[in-house]
């Protein structure tokens, strides 16, 4: 299900949070409403962690991650890194990377299998991404924008990209990512998709300016209507149990 | 009306004038630079192909920017537009800290402003693909919109921040029974907007208000919250507020919680908000004083 919320009067929820299938990071905000909105949706399923990165609240744009790992920029302080390592589940690898493009959230868009990156990213960074996040990395642009992390948001089930993406680009990206993609907007016509929303396989959080139409597009492309966290676990269980005694 | 040909002493290549690059290049430039601008009386914009004709030409001889270093000068053509639904994001960004850090229905408030196409002005660049909004000014009748959630929240905010008992009574009556005759003046702009635009902006607004409410004007009062600095002396971030403060019937100050970027000179000053009530008959005096102030500086 998609939820609409605000961070201190700003509808850019994707700037102040980072949601994956294994954890959720939330910025330390003026009021508790933001944090409790995430808590009420996610509390029993995945940990919701309050943090800052490099002393700032724009954590969603500075870090990139999926269920296997989290990449943070070199500007992250040691205490923040330690706090993240302590709070995240053990199977999530937290890695601080030396990369001059330090807004990793703007440069990298990823799900649990594929990542799209900024064309000017270092070669070593690309290797670290492939290693830590366990994904295949593609250097891409979206509608001519190199900040792929800002102009698209995708999960393992679907993706939303910049509204001016051409049909050919949509097809190409869809083939690379192996998920259905749709070109659309968030927060009442804003084209900076990833700033306005954050999504994982069963839920999404959007800015409160998002119109009903935009919300229904999101719920349909990310397949949120029938998605429950238990559904995903159950699906896995069927394939895990191979014999009853 | 045809646009008068521009006089260039040398060719200036076109600067990219989208919002961020403009603000960035302006910020990069050191103290002395002059922004050249044209205010033309040609039709400038269309929502339904209707242009506003409220701009006058600024005498270019007074601008000495041609003699300055090339990269110290940014050329910008500002134009005044009626508020349109397209301007939602720009206006919302400008009004982000309107009620300090209170969480309220800002989107609803912006919708009210944009819905009022007869009164209100939005300042943008001529032919800007980014549609960046540099300034917004409007007047909202508190009585007409009293049922809107955003107006109710705004009234609650104003009543809660005032700690002076005598002013609260005045404020309460202006917001309550006299609301039909009270206009909320909303004026916000980017910090580096050239002050030469201000007299024209305010003239345009008060002209529109008088056209829209011709018979009610005599009884109307005006009031708005705005920001100033204060420590021993009051430093006004916006020059027109000093004039309004002098002309106001009453006013009170309140502390602001939001972080403002403090310049070096202002770092000893406390950021404070001010609420003022100004009688409508003082408006023409305000306009005159604003013209004098801007044209002399």
UniProtKB/TrEMBL annotation, chain A:
Primary location group: cytoplasm
Subcellular locations according to the entry: Cytoplasm; Nucleus, Nucleolus
Gene3D superfamilies assigned to the protein according to its UniProt record, in alphabetical order: L-arginine/glycine Amidinotransferase, Chain A
InterPro entries: eIF6
Purpose of the protein: Binds to the 60S ribosomal subunit and prevents its association with the 40S ribosomal subunit to form the 80S initiation complex in the cytoplasm. May also be involved in ribosome biogenesis.
PANTHER family: TRANSLATION INITIATION FACTOR 6 (PTHR10784)
Subunit annotation: Monomer. Associates with the 60S ribosomal subunit.
Stored NCBIfam families: eIF-6
Protein name from the UniProt record: Eukaryotic translation initiation factor 6
Organism of this sequence: Durio zibethinus
UniProt gene name: LOC111310358
From TrEMBL, chain B:
Alphabetized Pfam families for the sequence: BCCIP
Membrane spanning residue stretches: none
GO cellular component: nucleus
Family: Belongs to the BCP1 family.
Protein name in the entry: Protein BCCIP homolog
Organism: Durio zibethinus
Classification lineage: Eukaryota, Viridiplantae, Streptophyta, Embryophyta, Tracheophyta
